[in-house]
From TrEMBL:
Pfam families: 3HCDH, 3HCDH_N. Keywords: Oxidoreductase. It comes from the Bacteria. Residues 186-281 form the 3-hydroxyacyl-CoA dehydrogenase C-terminal domain. The keyword Oxidoreductase applies. This is 3-hydroxyacyl-CoA dehydrogenase family protein. Pathway: Lipid metabolism; butanoate metabolism. Residues 7-183 form the 3-hydroxyacyl-CoA dehydrogenase NAD binding domain. It is an enzyme of class 1 (oxidoreductase). GO terms for molecular function: (3S)-3-hydroxyacyl-CoA dehydrogenase (NAD+) activity. Gene3D superfamilies: N-(1-d-carboxylethyl)-l-norvaline Dehydrogenase, domain 2, NAD(P)-binding Rossmann-like Domain. Its EC number is 1.1.1.35. PANTHER family: 3-HYDROXYACYL-COA DEHYDROGENASE FAMILY PROTEIN (PTHR48075), 3-HYDROXYBUTYRYL-COA DEHYDROGENASE (PTHR48075:SF5). It comes from Amycolatopsis pigmentata.
Length: 283
C-alpha cells in the first residue's frame, strides 16, 4: 500500500478537476490533466488555486515548484501508462463518463485504480463496462477541493477491499477525511444536501420566510456553516437541478424539483457563477 500515488491522471480540468490536480501535485504526485476544452484555462485554474494556497500559507513549496509536476494534455492517448490513479471529473453525463473511463482504462496499466468524482451517478453503472470494475470506485471530492476536508469514497458491490483501503490511505495523505458509502443514488452527501436544499426552495415558494432568514435559521440554529440556499448558489442551481431530477427518478417524489428552481435555471440565474441565484453575489 502506498501513501501517495506517484502518478495521477485527472480527466477534466474544470473546477473540480483543477482542484483535484492541485491537491495531488501539492502532496508530491506527478499529475497529468486531460482537458479537451481550453487547456490554457485549465492550467491557469490550477495556477490560481496554487497561488491562493500559497497566500494562505498552505503550500510547503513555491506554486511554480508544484506546477512543475503538472502536465495538461488534450489527448487521452497521452495519459501516462504508469498512472496509479485516474480521477474522472468531466461533466455529470453518464455516457461521457463511461466513454472517458473506458478509454482511459485502455491506456493506463491494469494495476491502476479508476475513480469517478460524480456527485450522484451510480458507480456500479459507470463501472459496468470496464475491464476491471473491481478497481473502480467513487472519489467524491467537494468544492472547493483544496479547502474541503471530506472525500466520500463510494464503493460498488464489486470494488475490492484492497482498492478501498488504498484509496482511503491516499485521501488521508492529502490531509482529508474519508467516509465510505455504499453505492446508492446521491450517496450520503448529495442525497441529504439536495433534500435540504429543495425543501428550503419550497419554503421560499410558500413564503414561509425570505432566503436570508431560511439560511440564517440553519446557520445559527443548527450550526450549519452555510444555509441550504446559499449552498445551492455555490454548487450551481443547474447542477442541483440535474441531481434533483436524477434522485427524483431513482428515489421518488420527495426529490421532485420545485418550480422556482426550474424557473431560475431557465432564466440563467445559476447562483454564484452568474452573480444571481437565491442571493446576489459579487463576481
Ligand atoms: N462543482 C461542484 O460543486 C462539484 C462538486 C462535487 C462533484 N462534482 C462533479 O465533478 C464533475 C465535474 O464537475 P465540475 O464542476 O468540475 O465541471 P466543469 O464543467 O467545471 O468541468 C468539466 C471539465 O471537463 C472538460 N471535459 C469535457 N469533456 C471532456 C473529455 N471528454 N475529456 C476531458 N475533459 C473533458 C470540460 O471542458 C471542463 O473543463 C461532475 O461530475 C460534477 O457532478 C462537482
Amino acid at each position: 500500500m502506498t501513501r501517495l500515488p506517484t502518478t495521477v491522471s485527472v480527466i477534466g480540468g474544470g473546477r473540480m478537476g483543477a482542484g483535484i490536480a492541485q491537491v495531488f501535485a501539492a502532496a508530491g504526485a506527478g499529475v497529468s490533466v486531460l482537458e479537451t476544452g481550453d487547456t490554457a484555462a485549465a492550467r491557469q485554474r490550477i495556477a490560481d488555486g496554487l497561488a491562493k494556497a500559497a497566500d494562505r500559507g498552505k503550500l510547503a513549496e513555491s506554486p511554480d515548484g508544484v506546477l512543475g509536476r503538472v502536465t495538461v494534455i488534450d489527448d487521452i492517448a497521452a495519459l501516462p501508462p504508469a498512472t496509479e490513479l485516474v480521477v474522472e471529473a468531466v461533466p455529470e453525463q453518464p455516457d461521457l463518463k463511461i466513454d472517458v473511463l473506458t478509454q482511459a482504462e485502455q491506456v493506463v496499466g491494469d494495476h491502476a485504480v479508476l475513480a469517478s468524482n460524480t456527485s450522484s451517478l451510480s458507480i456500479t453503472e459507470l463501472g459496468a463496462v470496464l475491464r476491471h470494475p473491481a478497481r473502480f470506485l467513487g472519489m467524491h471530492f467537494f468544492n472547493p477541493v483544496p479547502a474541503s476536508k471530506l472525500v466520500e469514497v463510494v464503493t460498488a458491490a464489486g470494488t475490492t477491499a484492497d482498492v478501498v483501503d488504498q484509496v482511503r490511505t491516499w485521501v488521508r495523505t492529502l490531509g482529508k477525511t474519508d467516509v465510505v458509502v455504499r453505492d446508492s443514488p446521491g450517496f450520503a452527501t448529495s442525497r441529504l444536501g439536495v433534500l435540504l436544499g429543495i425543501e428550503a426552495i419550497r419554503m421560499l415558494e410558500e413564503g414561509v420566510a425570505d432566503a436570508d432568514a431560511i439560511d440564517k435559521a440553519m446557520e445559527l440554529g443548527y450550526g450549519h456553516p452555510m444555509g441550504p440556499l446559499r449552498s445551492t448558489d455555490l454548487v450551481g442551481l443547474d447542477v442541483r437541478l440535474a441531481i434533483a431530477e436524477y434522485l427524483y427518478t431513482t428515489l421518488g417524489d420527495r426529490f421532485a424539483p420545485p418550480r422556482l428552481l426550474r424557473d431560475k435555471v431557465a432564466s440563467g440565474h445559476l447562483g454564484r457563477k452568474t452573480g444571481q441565484g437565491f442571493h446576489t453575489w459579487n463576481q
